[in-house]
Each structure stands twice: as structure tokens, then as C-alpha cells.
Write a structure and sequence with these properties.
mainly alpha
Length: 155
Amino acid sequence: MEELTFSEIISYAKIAEDNAKKFYLDAARIANLSHVKEFLKSLADEEQGHSDRLDALQKNLNKKGVVPKVHEAIHTFGYTDYIKPVDHLDQDATYKDVLEVGMAKEKEAIQSYEKFSLYVDDTEAKKLFNLLAQEEKKHLKRFEEEYDDLQDQKY
């Protein structure tokens, strides 16, 4: 496995956020219920906010001339743990399908950011990755609450 740079970590994180935003917007376009559309659009907006924070971190570090070092003890990713085929929802997807796919994506994002925070020595970067992991946990909780409510409606 090859060693990663901080720039590669930021690039991966931005790609993940962009993919999450696209997924939520695509799902919102096919959702039939207005509250589901709004829920998914709000998640897309939050993912854009994450991407914006990553951009700001990169710009701030570039301005300072700081290049965070990746810890030597943890210098590879194990991409197979994170890169999976994108799940596509079609017009026949149920709200339950959307929630299940969303939960899986949020769990993946949490794991990624938690690992990213271990990989860098820069306090600002570590703080941002931990913050983004917490925000992804909030997203996951929202999905789980919606899922739980949906399950209660069936019984």
C-alpha cells in the first residue's frame, strides 16, 4: 500500500462529501413525499457545509504554509474499507430504502473522519475531522430516528 499525504486525505474527504451531497439530491428528486424531499435536501446542504469547511481548512493551511504530517504509524488507508460501489435508488425506492442506504453512507463517513483525525498531526485538521465525524453521527441519528418512526408506523 502506498503512503498518503494530507492533500490526498483532504481530496478523499471532499470527494466523499460531494458524493454524499449528490446522493441526497438525487434521492430527493425521486422521493414522492414532500417531507422526505425536504429531509434529503437539508442533508445535502449539510454535506455542502462539510465540503466548504474542508476547503477553508486547506486554504488556511496553505496561507500559513503548513503541510500537516501524516503519522508514520498509520500511513495507509485500506481503501477497500471505504470505497464501495455507489448505491443508486430508482423511482421505485421506498422511504425505507432511502433510510437504509443513508444510514450505511453516514456510518462510512463517520469511520472515515475518525480515521482521518488519527492520521494527521495538525491540531486544526484533527479538530475539523473530529467535528465532521460528530456531524455525520448526527446525520446517522436522524436517519435512525426516521427509520424507528417508520417501523413504529407499520405496527
